[in-house]
Amino acid sequence: MPIDLNATFGKTLDPVFAEKLGQIFKAPIRACDAERLEFTDGTSVPVVNHVPRFVSSDQYVKSFSFQWTKYTTAQHNSAHASKLSRRDFIGKFGLSPEQVKGRLFLDAGCGTGRVSEILAEWGAYVIGVDLSDSVDVAQHQLVRFPTAAVLQADIANLPFRPECFDMVISTGVLHHTPDTRGYAAKLVPLVKAGGEFAIWVYDSRIFSRRKEWIPFTSRVPHKAFNDWCVWISDVARANRGHPLLEMFIRQMPFTTHHETALRSALTLFDSYTPSYHGVHSEEEVTQWFREFGLTDIHTNAISTSVRGRKPLQV
């Protein structure tokens, strides 16, 4: 009897997508319901709020658990008229709806699901994974798509079999892991032969100054630091160009031009609270892709966004 994953993910899944979901895990699914996912190798994971949980805690990403359960829709196209996230996605990955439709994507470090939302709108099958509690927000945002699902898991130890995704993407995530290159390398085996791998990480020419603050700012209680971010963002937006303010921003860089005050505060909090803050050059990331054995490597419009293809097997 076919496994029915609808109760697990809390919606009626597209039949093609449901079949793909049933095939991607390291061990086949033996049984499932709204509370548990069981595999034929004897392992099982709890399902909470229609999200299978392959980890027991959010480990080193507690700042993201805080921010994404507070700023739930600040980056979603569906909540804002400007479509900033869509422009950002195109600039970083160079993809069009025609290139996305019908392909199976892994959104590695999906946060609240803003990239997964774009992919699903464009007709992709997409699985979003994140280590943080943002998965609950992502599940809520993506519940309307029968071709999208969310898992809580560590991208260093994902539960998928090799070569099961047409494309693996990760934007703004890998530089917040203990080892940017090492964690990127763990994702490449999940790409099918002929499939693609694409990432965006912090550019060392732009984001290095932030790194000097992380040992201090990452230790400030999240609520207190967020309250300060809201206050200083409002001050900065109301006093653009003030000499003292500009001097401060040169020492602790942040931007004041976001379309909403909410997004300005979010971006500032996001910039200075993660436990890890890697910065890299475009040449460095491109070299990683060569070392991973990828071909057709190219950079996209936004700096340090790199895309490559896994060669077809001979």
Number of helices: 13
Shape: globular
Rg from alpha-carbon coordinates: 20 Å
Q: What is the name of the CATH topology of the largest domain?
A: Rossmann fold
Structural class: alpha/beta
Relative helix content: 25-40%
Summed over residues and divided by their number, the pLDDT gives a mean of 93
Say what oligomer this is. single chain
- Tally the structural domains: 2
CATH H-level superfamily of the largest domain: Vaccinia Virus protein VP39
Fold and architecture overview:
The chain is of the alpha/beta class and 314 residues long. It folds into two domains: 227 residues, Vaccinia Virus protein VP39 (Rossmann fold), CATH 3.40.50.150; 52 residues, no CATH class. The protein contains 13 helices and eleven strands. The strands form two sheets. Strands 7-6-5-8-9-11-10 form a seven-stranded mixed sheet, sandwiched between helices. Strands 1-2-3-4 form a four-stranded antiparallel sheet. Helix 8 links the parallel strand 8 and strand 9. Helix 10 crosses helix 12. The mean pLDDT is 93.
List the helices and strands and how they pair.
Blueprint lengths: L5 H4 L5 H7 L7 E4 L3 E4 L4 E5 L2 E2 L9 H9 L13 H10 L3 H4 L3 E5 L5 H8 L3 E6 L3 H9 L5 E5 L12 E7 L8 H8 L3 E10 L3 H14 L4 H17 L4 H9 L9 H12 L9 H10 L3 E5 L5 E5 L5
Parallel strand pairs: 5-6, 5-8, 6-7, 8-9
Antiparallel strand pairs: 1-2, 2-3, 3-4, 9-11, 10-11
Helix pairs in contact: 10-12
